[in-house]
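> call design_seq(struct)
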């Protein structure tokens, strides 16, 4: 949902320290477009006096860091992305492509497009959202559960996710309670507004048609991540011309940096050793 973006290495930069606790959440949908979000991470570099960084992003934070070297090439030394792979710019607006692909079936990104609809579902019970998001975002052997996620009908996104039997072993109750408390405070509209910018991002970046990423890149995915069931990870060569490595962690789901921290950190550290400054 919210974008997770981390500057992992900054050259010749003193550490000033900053906190994202209580960060702003603008109401305007366009405040979450790709221009604003990549400008935000460049602003972090400006704040600490660094020229470049290696950017690490998960989920839609991955989409932000994939776009950073295209929109701000002089501020990016390398990119590491988790869960969401690099993809070429589509030929048509994204929602048009998804509507053609899914037809009358349910697709959560299309469901998120209408302001207020998904907001009401998610904001109505943040604890239920966090439990199901943390416990249910992995490929399931249950065919009926998979079909429920795409079946036409009035059910919302969280309604379609299974209620987990208990907490996954990679998250504590205290951690879960922290997420619940924060989203109870902020609501989910900020994260949802990212999804409402897909067409805007496409419309405002015509110059990125055919653009290439030349800095070193790493993609880390989980073999049980449902995102990779509809997002192809084999198109990197259409976008990336610099050094590229892909690491797939067997059995890891969507929250792979929490599920399998040792393997994710090992891949990141090995990648960072090879980045030239």
């Amino acid at each position: 949902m919210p974008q997770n973006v981390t500057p992992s290495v900054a050259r010749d930069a003193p550490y000033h320290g900053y906190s994202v606790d209580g960060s702003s959440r603008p109401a305007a949908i366009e405040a979450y477009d790709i221009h604003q979000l990549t400008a935000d991470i460049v602003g972090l570099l400006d704040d600490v006096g660094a020229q470049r960084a290696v950017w690490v992003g998960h989920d839609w934070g991955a989409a932000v860091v994939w776009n950073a070297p295209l929109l701000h090439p002089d501020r990016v030394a390398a990119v590491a992305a988790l869960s969401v792979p690099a993809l070429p710019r589509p030929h048509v607006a994204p929602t048009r492509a998804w509507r053609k692909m899914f037809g009358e079936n349910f697709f959560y990104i299309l469901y998120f497009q209408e302001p207020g609809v998904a907001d009401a579902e998610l904001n109505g019970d943040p604890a239920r959202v966090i439990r199901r998001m943390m416990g249910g975002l992995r490929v399931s052997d249950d065919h009926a559960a998979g079909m429920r996620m795409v079946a036409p009908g009035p059910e919302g996104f969280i309604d379609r996710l299974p209620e987990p039997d208990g907490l996954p072993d990679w998250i504590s109750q205290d951690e879960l309670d922290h997420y619940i408390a924060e989203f109870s405070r902020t609501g989910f509209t900020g994260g949802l507004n990212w999804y409402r910018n897909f067409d805007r991002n496409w419309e405002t970046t015509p110059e990125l048609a055919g653009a290439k990423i030349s800095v070193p890149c790493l993609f880390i995915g989980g073999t049980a991540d449902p995102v990779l069931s509809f997002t192809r990870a084999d198109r990197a060569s259409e976008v990336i011309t610099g050094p590229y490595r892909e690491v797939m962690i067997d059995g890891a789901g969507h929250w792979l940096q929490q599920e399998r921290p040792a393997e994710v950190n090992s891949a990141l550290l090995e990648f960072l050793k090879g980045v030239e400054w």
